[in-house]
Write a structure and sequence with these properties.
About 55% of the residues lie in helices and about 15% in strands. It is built from 14 helices and 14 strands. A five-stranded antiparallel sheet has the order 10-9-8-7-11. It has a three-stranded antiparallel sheet with strand order 12-14-13, with helices on one face. A hairpin with a 6-residue loop joins strand 5 and strand 6. It starts with a helix and ends in a 15-residue tail after the last helix. It is found in: Cell membrane.
Length: about 475
């Protein structure tokens, strides 16, 4: 007996299913590979992840149980696939198969017999189509496996997203002290599961052939450019699935891959936001185009029919489109970034978000101003923190004539050097700026990173200056005016 004959040797049979030596060998090889992967995952990869993420013991046990469940289900599925020991639940074995399940598709027919020769006879096509559309035990196990993997991935991704959330929050707090309330949106607890749920719904819609009684046809365009679009349940669900996959990919790519790169290269929070937003907009545009294609909409006909409408809307919404383009320019040019401190029309605030049309600026009073992006592009805007994380500030004071100017300078420098929010480098200095009408005018200049609460810093320095002046008998004079009477 040759090798081929040995592999085809039948060990046993159940009903009309035969298990051969080849099936058994393939099953053993696949299960051995799965066992090796299982040991590597539990013994090496998961402990590394637990140490890196500082996972608690209870969560470790939960993760291990999910991994064990996934591998158990995978093992059962491999046994069924390799041996063929599977059972069809719908349509039930031995019962007539519904016509909507077994109806051959258009590309399976020809003009003479209604069936292509390479597809075999009607019985083969019916059995193959039932296999493709039917619900089997392996189908149920595979669905449970997908949900278990989704739960596991959701749990792992949630830990990563929460860790990145805290790091990003700390980074914003370093550049914006007025960050008392949570401004970042916490990551969702379910990220992968919506994709799996939608995939399961799509599968059930396909199995029960819902398109046969839940579909609608629409006429798009007119004349030679007209086209008929047949929209069914599976097409709509497929479009939703594409958008959910795009959302999942954006989260994984920006948080799992890009964020560690940002940390290694010490890229500032504003640049991170700009890169993430541009990538998200680009991917969502592609996903929307694919979703429209999945529904069955011909984009060339759609764009051709909407051209005149877009021109009319563009004239009416000219300012809105200007803001949209300005938002893209801000994200790409990065003249204004998230975390920058701006002076917009005399109002000082921190940029919290740069949206597609507007940006959010939080003021010193903890109020949010919605600024159109076109104003940040076209108007004159003072950006205190664009190139540097520090700026120079000044405090003016006048002393009476006859005061010791050297002592005044010493006191002012002492005030700046002792305040914790004033930087030691660059060093503060004092200017004797003028002989005023009633006082000798001085100016204290110092550097600080406190853009938003700088007025509090100045107030503290003025209190301390007044105290030291009183201790050293230095007088701050009242304004004097000479009045001549005739």
């Amino acid at each position: 007996m040759d090798l081929n004959g040995i592999l085809r040797f039948e060990l046993f049979s159940i009903s009309d299913i035969s298990v051969t030596v080849g099936n058994l060998i393939l099953m053993i090889i696949l299960l051995a590979g799965m066992a090796f992967l299982y040991r590597s995952l539990l013994g090496k990869w998961l402990p590394i992840y637990f140490r890196k993420e500082d996972v608690q013991d209870a969560e470790k046990q939960r993760t291990r149980r999910l991994v064990q469940l996934c591998f158990f289900l995978l093992g059962l599925i491999l046994v069924m696939i390799t041996t063929g020991l599977d059972y069809r639940l719908y349509p039930p074995a031995g019962q007539p198969i519904p016509a909507e399940v077994t109806t051959p598709s258009v590309n399976q027919t020809d003009n003479s017999t209604g069936l292509q020769e390479e597809d075999g006879g009607p019985e083969q096509i019916i059995e193959r189509d039932a296999r493709r559309r039917g619900i089997w035990i392996s189908t149920i196990l595979f669905t449970i496996l997908l949900f278990s993997i989704a739960r596991l991935l959701d749990w792992i991704l949630l830990h990563i997203l929460n860790r990145n959330f805290q790091k990003r929050r700390e980074a914003i707090q370093r550049i914006a002290i007025n960050f008392d309330q949570p401004r970042l949106v916490r990551p969702a607890k379910r990220i992968v599961q919506p994709v799996v749920y939608t995939l399961a719904i799509l599968f059930m819609a396909y199995v029960f052939n819902l398109d046969s009684f839940l579909s609608e046809s629409f006429q798009v365009g007119s004349g030679e450019n007209s086209d008929t679009i047949n929209i069914g349940v599976t097409k709509i669900i497929s479009a939703i699935l594409i958008l959910l996959i795009a959302r999942l990919f954006v989260l994984i790519f920006t948080e799992v891959f890009l964020f560690p790169y940002y940390q290694r290269k010490e890229i500032n929070i504003g640049s991170q936001y700009a890169i993430n937003q541009l990538f998200k907009y680009f991917l969502y545009v592609i996903a929307i185009l694919y979703a429209l294609g999945a529904i069955g909409i011909d984009l060339t006909i759609l764009l051709g029919g909407a051209a005149a409408l877009l021109v009319g809307i563009g004239l009416g919404l000219q300012q809105t489109f200007n803001d949209l383009i300005s938002g893209i320019i801000l994200l790409s040019e990065r003249s204004v970034e998230v975390g920058d401190v701006l002076d917009v029309g005399g109002t000082v605030g921190t940029v919290r978000r740069i949206g597609v049309r507007t940006s959010l600026v939080e003021t010193r009073d903890n109020m949010t101003i919605i600024v159109p992006n076109s104003k940040l592009i076209g108007d004159s805007v003072v950006n205190w923190s664009h190139d540097e994380d520090k700026a120079r500030f000044r405090i003016s004071v006048g002393v009476a004539y006859g005061s010791d100017t050297a002592l005044v300078k010493k006191i002012l420098l002492q005030v700046a050097q002792e305040h914790p929010k004033a930087l030691k480098r660059p060093a503060p200095f004092v200017r004797f700026i003028n002989f005023g009408d009633s006082s000798l005018d001085f100016e204290l200049l110092f550097w600080s990173k406190e853009f938003i609460r700088i007025e509090d810093v100045k107030s503290d320095m003025r209190f301390e200056t007044d105290r030291l002046f009183r201790e050293n008998n230095i007088t701050i004079p009242f304004p004097q005016r000479d009045v001549w009477m005739r």
